[in-house]
Structures are given as structure tokens and as C-alpha cells.
Amino acid sequence: MIIVDRAMERRASAGNPVKVGVFGAGFMSRGLFNQQQYTNGWSVAAVCNRTPDHAVRALRDAGVTDVEVVENQTGFDTVVARGGTAVTPDPELLCASEAIECVVEATGHVGYGARVTVLAIEHGKHVVLMNAELDGTVGSLLHAKGRDAGVIVTGCDGDQPGVELNLYRFVTSIGLEPLVCGNIKGMQDRYRTPETQASFAAQWGQTPEMVTSFADGTKISFEQAIVANATGMSVAQRGMIGIEYDGHVDDLVDRFDVDDLRARGGIVDYVVGSQPSPGVFVYAAAHDDLQRKYLDYGKLGSGPLYSFYVPYHLTIFEVPFSVVRAVDFDDAVIQPLRGPCVDVVAVAKRALEAGETIDGLGGFMTYGVCENRDTAMGERLLPMGLAEGCTLRRAVARDSIVTLDDVEFPDSSLVHDLWIEQNTRFPVVTR
Fold it and tell me: The domain at 342-425 falls in which architecture?
């Protein structure tokens, strides 16, 4: 983040921090509220939360004293103008405010996130998404709508996809060829539920559903789909390979065939139980013998793949960089190159019966896996981000993919409408 930190210092010295509006007051947002005490050049000027009292408590717990719940635009703008933090349940007030330069979507909810992101774009606001589930479902369309409106819609620094893209950009900038973008998981169990994860969730102040999506592989599937869509990469197989290995990721470079990776245009994947956890990695190839010589001299080995990694992702500590990159540098951390390359599709976590209504992400009924978009569309597989609220027309066996033909969609859903629009704007191109 060299250069960005200087820009943040200049903002702070001029008394002109980027005024940010945050959607949500949950686990990640609480960290952001606290972080503004220690990171220059930005401030949380407003929070939109469906339960305002919860947002007020979260802000005050983070040391923010001038907090006021507002009900109209005049009240909102008055609080922000005096340097306070306005709290509202109405996303229109936040998005319509001329003082707000950038919004952070931190709810993790696909439907609500779609609504407020579209609203922010319509009002000409830059958007930083801390919502991989939304990004992995209709991100290509949202990013395109942002470009059409002259604003940045981007994923964030600090979460694995953003850290991977920063590393990917570094590897590319030194003249190497990235062929694997990888994510490192501590564990994975497809059959975890909110019941099994309840105590861990309580320990960290998170929802059981969010923690379940980490454990059952849904979250990492969305994260790696985002990386694929930002790089043009694919997955080697449905669900990715997911090597289990208790050593270092440096040791796994020989598990991949360079010619096969090049033929695929590179792949996204993950490893389980490896070090450095919970980091990310990129495997890259050199272009000639002289590059290989100097990489060997730099202690990266003899190739043909070379391992680069970041041993951490620091979530809320890095998100302010994303804000300043968008506002001051017109630079997205991570966004799709074009239409989707990889989708996340729904798989039955247990036997599903006709007539049941599918619960939400990180629930009892489904988990998400990556699939190349041409296959997902050709086989009419149900996107995980659209599964919630769908009613099953027929039974689906455990570990079977749920298809579009297996379900009835709810009568009205913005995210479903956006998905249809995305498919129209970005038709499938067979690889």
C-alpha cells in the first residue's frame, strides 16, 4: 500500500478524510468502526443498519461519541457536516448524501447487499464490497453498472480475494506468468451446520450461519470464484482440487502440470491444512532461462513453478486502503474482467425433500462449490447465491447438485433479476 498511505496522510493533514458510509453493524463493521481511530485519512460518517440501536451500540463500543439516529435527509446531512456519525435504517439517506464519497457493503447478505449496491451506484457512489457472496453471484453486472455510472465497485483489501489479486498483480508486474491463485484453509467439512458451529460463532461474536459457510466450503468457493472472474482463470474440476497437506505451500509446486495450467488459462484452487495459514498463494512460471536463473538465485527454486505467498489477511485493518484506492486513485482492488468465468452452485448438504424451502447460506440444507460457468449454465445448475427461498419441486439426494429445474424461485427477487440481466449482458462463451 505504498503511495496509498501517503495519500491518506495528506487527507488527514488537510482535515479532509474520505467520508464513508457503512452498510451493516455486524462483526466486520465493528472492527471498521474501531479502526478509524488508528488509520488516517478516512472516517465512518454514517451507518445504515436495519436495527439502528445495534449500530449505535457498536459505534459507541468503538469509542465514537457523536452518534445520532436520523430520520430524514436534512438531519442526516446536519450530523455528517458537524463531523458526527449519522445512523439510519434507510439506505436512501446514506446514498443520497453528497457528503458520502464511498460506501462499504458489509452485511454479507446477498439480497440486501444487491439492493443497497444498486442504490449506491445510482447515486454515483464508489462501493467497496465486503460481501463475497453478492460479488460471486452478480458481481460482473454490478461492476459493469459501476463503470457505466463512472464509479468503482470493488472487492476489498484484507479479505483473501483482494490479497490474492494484490499478489497476482505483483507477480505479473515483475514479468512472471501466474498460473495458480490459491487460498489456504485450516479445515473443511461439508456437513457442518449452524448447530455444530454455534459455540465457535459465539466465541467470536459472529452468526452461526456465517461461521458455517466458512467451515462447509461455501465461503472459499465464493472467494475463489471472485478471483477467477478477476483473472480470467477457471477451475480444474467441479469443487476445485482442494489438496490436503500439512506442510508448506512451497512444497506443492510439483503437484501441477505447467502445460495443463497454461492450456486452461490458469486455475484458482485451495489447500487444506497447509502453511502459512490463513494466507494465500500464487504459483507462477518464468518465461525464459535467464529469469529462471535469477529466481533460483533468489532462493525460489528451479521451477518450473515458483511459489509466492502472503501469510495473512487482515480484513478490517486493510479495508480503508480499498476506500482510498477507489476514491483518490480510481483503482479497484478486485473486480471482474468481463462476465463470470466461474460460478458457485448449490449442492445438497442432506437429502432434500419436495416442498421444502431452501434456507440461507451457511444453513442446514446446501453448501456451495465452484464450477466453470459454461458448464454451470449448460447443465442449468442453481447458483448458490440464488438458492435461499427457493422451493423444491422434487427430492434431491445428499451431495447432488441442485438444478434450476429442481426449484421454484420466489415470486420477487432483485438478485434473481440482476442474475438474468447479467446472463443477457454476458452470454456464455465456450472455452
Answer: Alpha-Beta Complex (3.90)
Please give the C-alpha separations between residue 57 and each of 80, 238, 375, in angstroms, as whole numbers: 18, 43, 46
What region does 395 belong to: left with phi over 0, alpha with psi -120 to 50, or beta?
beta
Per-residue pLDDT tens digits of the chain, which is 431 residues long: 589 999 999 999 999 999 999 999 999 999 999 999 999 999 999 999 999 999 999 999 999 999 999 999 999 999 999 999 999 999 999 999 999 999 999 998 999 999 999 999 999 999 999 999 999 999 999 999 999 999 999 999 999 999 999 999 999 999 999 999 999 999 999 999 999 999 998 998 899 999 999 999 999 999 999 999 999 999 999 999 999 999 999 999 999 999 999 999 999 999 999 999 999 999 999 999 999 999 999 999 999 999 999 999 999 999 999 999 999 999 999 999 999 999 999 999 999 999 999 999 999 999 999 999 999 999 999 999 999 999 999 999 999 999 999 999 998 899 999 999 999 999 986 55
pTM metric for this prediction: 0.96
Q: CB neighbours of 3 closer than 8 A, spacing ≥ 6?
A: 329
Instruction: Report the top-level CATH class of 4-157+316-329.
Output: alpha beta
The residue ranges of every structural domain in the chain are 4-157+316-329, 160-314, 342-425
